[in-house]
C-alpha cells in the first residue's frame, strides 16, 4: 500500500512539472509583448524594446525558463509584468471566489447525483426513465448557455438574484449564497447529469450481482444491503466521474465567471493571457494544474480505501 | 412520510425568499439613495501617478486624486488645485497659484512643496505616463502658494497633462512611504475604501473635507470592472449598475426601461498611409496615390454599416471639439472613384498596385472590414493581401515599419499629444519617420503659439496640411455610448471616454 502511494505521488509530481514546463514554452510561442502592454500603444518601438530587455523577455526561451524554474525552486514566483507586484498577490481573493463556486458546485453534484442514482437504480421504471431524461437534457445544455438563461430569467426579468458580482462569505453569508446561487446551478447541472448516470449504471450492476442476491436471501434488510454493501462497491466509477466532473467544472467555472463577472481565477487567467503577463499565467498553471492532479490522486486514494481490490492495482 | 417532505419544501421556499431579500435589500437605493455604481472595462491596477491608467481606468483615480488643473466639458483647462495658471511670453515657464486651506486625507497640508515633490517624483519614475513630464526641466516652489514649472521647450499639452496623471496630487508622506500604488492618499472627492473593495470592485466613500463637494453629489462610489456586454446590459437592467458604456444596439431595450444615453468621441479609425517617401512601396510616395485612396473609401458605409450607430465619418485625425479640428475639412474626400482613378493614372499607376496589410479580423470581430477595404481599394486597382499576425504582435509590427500602409484605431487626445504620437518624425505612429519642411514649420509655429485662438489656428493649419497631403485616410471617429439609470445624468463632454467623474450628476427622475 505504501509503495503504491509513493509511486502515485511521485507520478503526480512528475506530471505537474511536465505540465508547467509545457505551459511555459507554449506561452512563449504566442510572441507576447509585455513591454507594449505596460507602455501602451503610443510608446515608441525603442522604448518597448528597452522595457522588454529590462524584463528579460528578449532572451531565448530556454534561458528564460531556466531563470524562472530556478526562482521557483527558491520559492520566488516572480512579479507581474503589468503591476510590478508579486505575481501571487491577490491570488487568495481570486481563489476564494473560484473555490466557492467550484466547491459549492461539487457539493451539489455529490448530493444530487447520489440521490438521483439511488432513486433511478432502486425505484420504479418510471422514476428511472425520468432521471435518465433529466440527466441527458441537462448534460446536453452547455453551462455557458444555461448561465445566460438563468441570468435573464432570475436576475433580470424576475429580479430574485443579483445579475453579477461576488460577496465574500465573511461579509454576508446570505448574500454570498445569493450571489452564487445562479452560477452554481449553471456549473453543477452538467456534472450532476454525468455523475448520476454513472452512479446509476454502477449501482444497477452491483444490485444484480450474486453476492447481493445472497445477502437478500439471508434476510439482510434492504436498506443495509443498499447502504453498507451495494453503494460501497458501486462507488469507484461514480468517484471517477466526480473527479472528471470536478475538472470539467473548473473549466466551466471559468466561462460562468465571465457571464456573472465573478473575479475568480478564470477572469485573472483571461486578463493575464491577453496582456502576456507570463509570471501570473504560470502561477495559475501551477495552481490549477496542481488542483487537477491532486483531485485525481485523492480519487485514487479514496478508491483504494473503499475497495480493497484497487490497492493491488 | 409526508411531513418531512413538506418541511423540506417549506425550507427551500424560505431560503429562496431570504436570499431574494438579501439581494434586494443590498441593491436598494439607486439614484434615490446616495450610491453611484459605474462599470468600466478594466480593473483597477495602480494608484501610483506614474502608472495611472489615463484611458479606460480614469475614473478609478479621479475619485481619490484632485489635479492641479481640470478640463471643462469643452476640454479647456480651468482651475483645479491651482486657482490660476499663466505662461511666460515664450511659453517656457508656467506659473501656478495654488489653492490654500486644502489638506490631504492623511492631514498633510497641500502646498507648493507638496506639489513640487509630486512633480519631481513623476519626472524620475518610470512608467507609461513619464512622457507627460518630458518638457519640464525644473520645478520651483515660490513660497507656499506658488509653483513654477520651467520648460525646455514650449509644451502645448502641458496643461492637459496637469489635468491628468502629471497633475494628480498625492500626499508627500504617502509618496515617501512607497505605499501609494495600493493606498492612495489624495485631496479628491472620495476616499478609497480598502475594506469594501475586492478584485473587480473598487469602493469609495465621500471625503468630507473635499473643497468642492457640490460637484460630487454621491456619498458612496463603486466602480466595477465588466467586459462582457451582456453582463453590463443585465447589470443595468437589474439596477446593479447606474451607468456603463454599452453597445449602440443595446440602447433600445435600455431606453424602454427609462434609461438615458450620452455619446463620447474616442479617436479615429482608418488607414495610416505610412510610407510617404515610397521607401518600400514607391506608389505611396506620390501624393496623388494617397489622395486617390482617400477618394476611394466610402466613409458612409464604414460609419453606418460596419459600426452602426457608433461612429461619425471623418477624414481628419484630430477629434471634433479640439482646437485643431476643422469642420471645413469634413467632406474633402467624398467617394469619387472616377476622380481617384484619374489621380492614380497621373501618378503613373493606372492599373493600381499590390500591397500587404495586417489582418484585423480578430480585432474588428468581423471580416466585413477586410471585405469593404478589398472592394473599395480594388475599385481603383489596389489589391490588398491580408497577413495574419498574432494579436500581441500587431501594434509592434505596424510601428516597426513592416507595412507601408495599415488600418488601425487610434485614440485622440489634445492636438499636441496627437502630433507627438503620430506626426513628429520620431512619433510611435510615424513608422517610416516621414518629415516635410513645410509641415515642420507649421508644427513649430503651433508649438510656440500662445494658448488660445492663435494656437488653435496654428493647429488647424497643421491639420489642413495633413489632410491635403493625405498622410492618413481616416474613415470614422468611433463614439462610445454610455447608458445611465433614471435619476442619473451624464453631462456632455466634447471628447474622451469614459467621461470625467464630475460629469455624473443627479437628475430629475
How would the blueprint of this fold be written?
The complex is a heterodimer of chains A (313) and B (509).
Chain A: H1 2-29, H2 34-39, H3 45-55, H4 61-73, H5 91-122, H6 125-140, H7 143-157, H8 173-207, H9 210-217, H10 222-259, H11 265-275, H12 278-306
Helix pairs in contact in A: 1-12, 5-6, 5-8, 5-10, 6-8, 7-8, 7-10, 8-10, 10-12, 11-12
Chain B: H1 2-27, E1 35-40, H2 58-62, E2 69-71, E3 77-79, E4 82-87, E5 93-98, H3 112-124, E6 136-141, E7 146-151, H4 158-162, H5 172-177, E8 190-192, E9 201-206, E10 220-225, H6 229-237, E11 243-246, H7 251-255, E12 260-265, E13 267-273, H8 287-296, H9 299-306, E14 311-313, H10 337-346, E15 353-358, H11 361-364, H12 368-378, E16 382-387, H13 394-399, E17 405-411, H14 415-422, H15 437-448, H16 453-468, E18 472-484, E19 488-490, E20 504-506
Parallel strand pairs in B: 1-10, 15-16
Antiparallel strand pairs in B: 2-3, 4-5, 5-7, 6-7, 8-9, 9-10, 11-18, 12-18, 13-17, 13-18, 14-18, 19-20
Q: How would you characterize this protein structure?
A:
The complex is a heterodimer of chains A (313) and B (509). With 313 residues, chain A is an all-alpha fold. Chain A has 2 domains: 2-73; 91-312, MetI-like fold (Orthogonal Bundle), CATH 1.10.3720. Chain A contains 12 helices and no strands. Chain A has helices at residues 2-29, 34-39, 45-55, 61-73, 91-122, 125-140, 143-157, 173-207, 210-217, 222-259, 265-275, 278-306. In chain A, helix 11 (265-275) runs antiparallel to helix 12 (278-306). The model of chain A has no long low-confidence stretch (mean pLDDT 85). With 509 residues, chain B is an alpha+beta fold. Chain B has 2 domains: 35-259 and 485-506, Periplasmic binding protein-like II (D-Maltodextrin-Binding Protein, domain 2, 3-Layer(aba) Sandwich), CATH 3.40.190.10; 267-479, Dipeptide-binding Protein, domain 3, CATH 3.10.105.10. Chain B has helices at 2-27, 58-62, 112-124, 158-162, 172-177, 229-237, 251-255, 287-296, 299-306, 337-346, 361-364, 368-378, 394-399, 415-422, 437-448, 453-468; strands at 35-40, 69-71, 77-79, 82-87, 93-98, 136-141, 146-151, 190-192, 201-206, 220-225, 243-246, 260-265, 267-273, 311-313, 353-358, 382-387, 405-411, 472-484, 488-490, 504-506. In chain B, strands 11, 12, 13, 14, 17 and 18 form a 6-stranded antiparallel β-sheet that branches. In chain B, strand 8 (190-192) and strand 9 form a beta hairpin. Chain B is globular. In chain B, 48% of the residues are buried. Chain A: It is found in: Cell membrane. Chain A: Keywords: Cell membrane, Membrane, Signal, Transmembrane, Transmembrane helix, Transport. Chain A: It is a multi-pass membrane protein.
